[in-house]
Amino acid sequence: MVIAHNITRGSVVAERVEVASSFGARFMGLMGRASLPTGTGLFLAGNGIHMFFMRFAIDAVFVSSEDGDGGRRVVAIREGLRPWAGIVPLVRGAAAVLELPTGTVAASGTRLGDTLVLETASV
Length: 123
Hints:
Elements: E1 2-6, E2 11-20, H1 23-28, E3 40-45, E4 49-50, E5 58-63, E6 71-81, E7 87-88, E8 96-101, H2 104-108, E9 115-120
Parallel strand pairs: 2-3
Antiparallel strand pairs: 1-2, 1-9, 3-8, 4-7, 5-6, 5-8, 6-9
């Protein structure tokens, strides 16, 4: 698990982020889950996501590749993506997506151009 920090705003975006590192984990994403609890998220490498087979709405934060300091610039935000809404259009410049419970983007103050950092959570 990792923690997603918005270093531009000085806020925590999610305290428990699962990293979908295998093909199977990326393929499944959040499909089949009943919910995504507050404070959690799913980090997916790549640019393409969809809302098929989803049971709940999410916020999606599209980020660039890591810079030299481990930061990733927010290149697009999609709030309140509805279940079964289809394919989310690809985002130019995005290398990964952070999927979050709906309302997380607003609560964390995350905006276009902010820098996010994913850090390993201490146990």
